[in-house]
Design a protein that fits this description.
Layout lengths: L2 H21 L3 H9 L6 H11 L2 E2 L4 E2 L3 E4 L8 E3 L4 E2 L3 E4 L4 E3 L4 E2 L3 E4 L1 E5 L6 E6 L2 E3 L4 E2 L4 E2 L3 E3 L4 E2 L4 E2 L7 E4 L4 E5 L23
Parallel strand pairs: 1-4, 2-5, 3-6, 4-7, 5-8, 6-9, 7-12, 8-13, 9-14, 12-15, 13-16, 14-17, 16-18
Antiparallel strand pairs: 10-11, 18-19
């Protein structure tokens, strides 16, 4: 075997060894958690993610698939507070920390993206990457298929409507919606009664015809 070939094989082996060591690390547990069926094995999934390095508080649960991307072991950049429920699938792209508070509810197919790009020249519009922390404060509800972009704080007690794209901070106790998301209205700190259309009568019919 020639010297250039030996050098190439040595470099390939070194690269493969590094990847294997990475897969053998705690991050492999996050990969395993992602393979579990949605809406099943929620306690097992949550335990695996804790073991992988995700900081998950008391009585919180990851019900569906949680996809974590980023360099190294991105699990260590994600913090989830107490009594928070992640419906899944949730994608968290971790180039910077993401902190999810207490009593937060995250709907289906939500994305939290800490990585973005500057606008590049015409031949390469996805320019230089930049990173920014995301904070979801206590009591928030992120409805299905919303997206939160870098350098955003979603204020305590707020709601992000389904399908919205959040590009800037959300004030506390507000409902935001749209692309980009804008404040629709302020929310009562004591909550609001459900409209009649949202009430479901589960009692059996009084008689059968």
């Amino acid at each position: 075997m020639s010297k250039p070939t030996r050098t190439l094989v040595s470099r390939a082996w070194q690269a493969a060894s590094e990847e294997v060591r990475s897969l053998a690390s705690r991050q492999a547990l996050a990969y395993l958690a992602e393979t579990l069926p949605s809406s099943a094995f929620a306690n097992t999934r949550t335990a695996l993610l804790r073991a992988a390095g995700v900081k998950i508080g008391r009585h919180s649960l990851v019900q569906g698939k949680l996809r974590l991307t980023g360099k190294g072991n991105p699990c260590e950049l994600l913090t989830i507070g107490d009594e928070t429920l992640i419906t899944g699938g949730l994608h968290v792209d971790l180039g910077a920390p993401v902190r999810i508070g207490n009593l937060v509810r995250v709907g289906h197919d939500v994305s939290l993206l800490t990585i973005n790009h500057a606008v590049g020249p015409s031949y390469f519009r996805a320019g230089t990457s930049f990173f920014g922390e995301i904070v979801i404060e206590d009591g928030c509800w992120l409805a299905s298929r919303c997206t939160v972009l870098p350098n955003v704080v979603v204020g305590a007690g707020s709601i992000v409507a389904a399908g919205s794209v959040v590009t800037r901070n959300v004030p506390k106790h507000t409902l935001v919606a749209g692309v980009p998301a804008r404040v629709v209205r302020e929310l009562n700190e004591e909550g609001e009664p459900s409209p009649p259309s949202m009430r479901y009568d589960s009692s059996p019919p009084s008689s059968l015809s």
